[in-house]
Design brief:
The complex is a heterodimer.
Chain A (H helix, E strand, L loop, with lengths): L1 H32 L17 H7 L5 H32 L5 H11 L6 H14 L6 H24 L4 H9 L4 H30 L2 H6 L7 H10 L5 H24 L7
Chain B lengths: L4 H29 L12 H8 L1 H34 L2 H16 L2 H12 L4 H9 L12 H24 L4 H9 L4 H29 L2 H8 L6 H11 L3 H33 L1
Helix pairs in contact in B: 1-12, 2-12, 3-7, 3-9, 4-7, 5-7, 5-10, 7-9, 7-10, 8-9, 9-12, 11-12
Classes of the chains: A mainly alpha, B mainly alpha.
Chain lengths: 268, 279
Amino acid sequence: MRFKDLSYSLVVGVLAGLGFLILVAPVLIVLVTSLTRGRSIKFPPSGLSLQWYELLFDPVRSSQIHRAALNSLEVALAAMLAATVLATLASVALARRGGPWVRALDTFFMSPLILPMLAFGLAALMYFTFLGFRPSLTLIAIGHVIVVSPLVLRTTFASMSQLDPALLESSASLGASWLYTFRRVTLPVIAPGIAAGAFLAFVGSLDNVPISLFLAGPRSDMLPIRMWGMMESMLDPRVAAVSGVLIAVVLVLMLVMERVVGLTRSFK
Amino acid sequence: MRLRPAEWQLVLPLALAYAAFFLVPLLLLVAVSAYADEKITTPGFAMWRKFLGDPFTWKVIFDTVKLGVYTVAATVLVGYPLALVYLGAGPRAQRVILFVVILPLLTSVVVRTFAWIVILGREGVINQTVLWLGLAPAPLRLLQTEHGLVIALTQIEMPLLLLPLLSVMSRMDPSLRDASAALGASRWRTLFRVTLPLSLPGLVAGCMLVFASSTTAFISQFVIGGNRLVYLPLLIWQQSLVVYNWPLASAAALTLLVSVGAGVAAIAALGRRSRAYAI
């Protein structure tokens, strides 16, 4: 039995270590690679410099990347706001209720998570084309709202389950209107869940490929699609620099969210 | 139980948005696939016949499902032990693991794919290590192979497995494991008779997400797999945005949808079966 326990620690430890390495190493490697002094992407880099970041932040030589990044930010903000409002309202009504209708609606709202987004991207492209719309940032934002809403629903649902119904009842029995109860009781309790969901929605939209792939046009270039192009032609080392910036931004946002709402808690 | 009218009004905006911009487009996808020509004028199932009559299509469907199965197996192989370590760790270490799991999830898929090009390339990290250790005489070919793609997808998709798994595991009653150990069970026995059955819902949910995501990860498949490895997402992209044959692209998209749905349903069924056996 001793031997068995030892073999357990060994097998689990080695595999878990491998898993940890696989998760962390790529992120670190990208960061180090982006600091290379060489003219091509290599690890370990042939020397350290910030040249690719300088090129990336050059407003003339990297104007296309800047344009794509601004488009992505604009879409992500719009999609985040819309998805947060719509999904929060829906989850306030649906949370902690049973019944076939509620379950069916819940499945319907969550289905974009499992459904191949690529199929939905194509469907959205054809739909908007038949309706006579030209590719635009608005259409991309609408597509993103659909695929990031489940993320907000999930986190607000989770925090709604922490809301003591007795609080709502006592607020109502003391004569508060529904809106007043919502503002003064419900909202403060579920605010961390909403914030975590909004954050996930923002990042989800910023990273989205399958919807943007179909809905982005020449005048509505999106950052992930542009990065894909930069990787396709001849591995442009600025991809590493963009990746470095994105990782840094997400890392900072994550630390802020952890401080403000305890992001890691909302995943439990 | 029915919703009160006031609550219907709260659900309505999201429901309408989903109906207008999600449900109707998907129905349109089905409709367009039932047109026989590229200009979408004559209804008919010629495209479906052309698509499903081609043996190449079936090879692509098989490869796509196989890729999903391999990725699920690889993520569980290293992800589940990581979850076990998380379970036994103190609160500080737990937070570190959770952070490490969430960070790749929030870095763009394109960034993660790019990282694996740097790692798997001819002059990449793995090849340099292999050459330095003298394990192989020449650089290994890792990009544009199924192995390389599965390794990359393991990292790209692992957070999707771990988040539901960790959330279920952290709600498990630790005294059950203690009881199992106190009654003389080895740690392997405790794992297979106590921990695994209890964490099964999280494991099943995670596997479903990994399967659905890896089979449709177009950019990763295309950039790491190259032109030689063809999966359904590549067919959809080629037919819709390169050849502009929308009926055929719709047929391919629906095939992907059905394949992913079947895979996910199979994982769910497998989960239910094994739960019945475990307890």
